[in-house]
């Protein structure tokens, strides 16, 4: 297995498409919501370019249909474009037939824009054995939908799986997001709200420990997390806290994170897949 590697992954969804706000914003309202994702992605592309880092962008098909230039910009900047499903419906909420249609539809939309789609990440990490079989059937080569933190109510679960990449029985590579382990305890350390909540210095120390023990760190975040001026949704206090806390500081935290690991090896998920297949 390749050693000393960091994978930066971005789940490309807009502020109104997140799972926390589904009780407040219906799918029917999406077309009337302000699209802010493209300007946020442009900022991320600029930030990554400044550090010479290539990343994997898991893009919603719904956004790719409306903002094809978003996909083109990501691709032209030398990053990988992968699938995040069509409209962020949890895989658990779809029948097998509907899920297969969703996977095929999104892959087709993205590839019509001149990119090769090899990978997929399920909304809210809703991984399952059925999903992995359907990914293989629809021509995907890897998945990054496993989060081994078990105290989150929406995350999927694969019996016996660790947070190290492994070849699934479906024949594709699973690339889990990274977490810290203390004995039997798993502490979420892959990014997202956990990255925004923790002091940057503490988060970096945890990442260094993961790299030392695992040789690989997989990080994720969302474009809306660098956008403190996004519209406010009148959600419950807990949902608002998880979504809005520390947005104004996230861009600087990302800069500090990338600077701290500037000497490490950054790869896209597809590049990592190729290394694994070559035994590098």
From TrEMBL:
Molecular function terms, GO-annotated: hydrolase activity, acting on carbon-nitrogen (but not peptide) bonds
Source organism (scientific name): Thermosulfuriphilus ammonigenes
Name of the protein this chain belongs to: DUF3473 domain-containing protein
Lineage per the UniProt record: Bacteria, Pseudomonadati, Thermodesulfobacteriota, Thermodesulfobacteria, Thermodesulfobacteriales
An example Gene Ontology biological process: carbohydrate metabolic process
Pfam families, per database record: DUF3473, Polysacc_deac_1
Superkingdom, taxonomy of origin: Bacteria
């Amino acid at each position: 297995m390749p050693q000393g590697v960091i994978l930066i992954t971005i789940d490309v969804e807009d502020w109104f498409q997140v799972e926390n706000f589904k009780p407040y914003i219906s799918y029917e309202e999406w077309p009337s919501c302000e699209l802010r994702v493209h300007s946020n992605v442009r900022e991320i592309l600029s930030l990554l370019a400044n550090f010479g880092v290539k990343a994997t962008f898991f893009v919603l098909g719904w956004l790719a249909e409306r903002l094809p230039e978003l996909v083109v910009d990501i691709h032209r900047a030398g990053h990988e474009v992968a699938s995040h499903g069509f409209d962020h419906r949890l895989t658990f909420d779809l029948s097998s037939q509907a899920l297969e249609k969703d996977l095929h539809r999104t892959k087709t939309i993205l590839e019509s824009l001149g990119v090769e789609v090899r990978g997929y990440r399920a909304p809210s990490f809703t991984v399952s054995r059925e999903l992995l079989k359907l990914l293989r059937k629809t021509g995907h080569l890897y998945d990054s939908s496993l989060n081994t933190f078990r105290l989150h109510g929406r995350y999927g679960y694969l019996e016996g799986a660790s947070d190290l990449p492994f070849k699934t029985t479906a024949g594709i590579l699973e690339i889990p997001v990274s977490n810290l382990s203390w004995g039997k305890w798993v502490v979420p350390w892959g990014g997202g709200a956990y990255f925004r909540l923790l002091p940057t210095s503490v988060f970096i120390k945890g990442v260094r420990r993961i790299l030392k023990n695992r040789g690989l760190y997989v990080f994720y975040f969302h474009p809306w997390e660098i956008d403190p001026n996004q519209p406010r949704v009148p959600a419950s206090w807990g949902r608002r806290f998880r979504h809005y806390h520390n947005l104004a500081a996230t861009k600087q935290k990302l800069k500090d994170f990338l600077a701290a690991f500037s000497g490490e090896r950054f790869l896209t998920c597809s590049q990592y897949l190729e290394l694994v297949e070559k035994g590098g």
